[in-house]
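Sequence in, structure out.
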Amino acid sequence: MADYSEFNSNLPARTVTAEAPIPFARPGNLAAIIGRIEEVVEEETAGIRSDTSYDLKASNARKSRYLYELNRAMKGGSEAEFLEQHREGLTRLRQKLARNEAAIVAHLSAVNEVANLLKSAIQRAEADGTYSAGEFGWAKG
């Protein structure tokens, strides 16, 4: 087995272990993270409403990453302190999330309606009436 100590000698010593607690982030960092979440939510809402080719998968990935950052930044801190310091930003975010939810629900409703129209059209195209129950008098409408 090769000795790799000569390659490791120039590397700095590891100072943080995986189990080390993460210090509570500064309030400015939390405000910036909340701002990024607001921005991506606004972008998604506008995209859903106006762009039929909007990339929801990429938007969800960004939202997930920012929420992960927020959770990491909050570790080790007081939730009550966080809520008090960022009440205004969180209120704005909640309002933007409500608008985003309404846009997503409308989008899903429209997708469902189009899917039902396509399903009906396919069923009508496939059914020429030859073997339907109505043709034999079994079904009374």
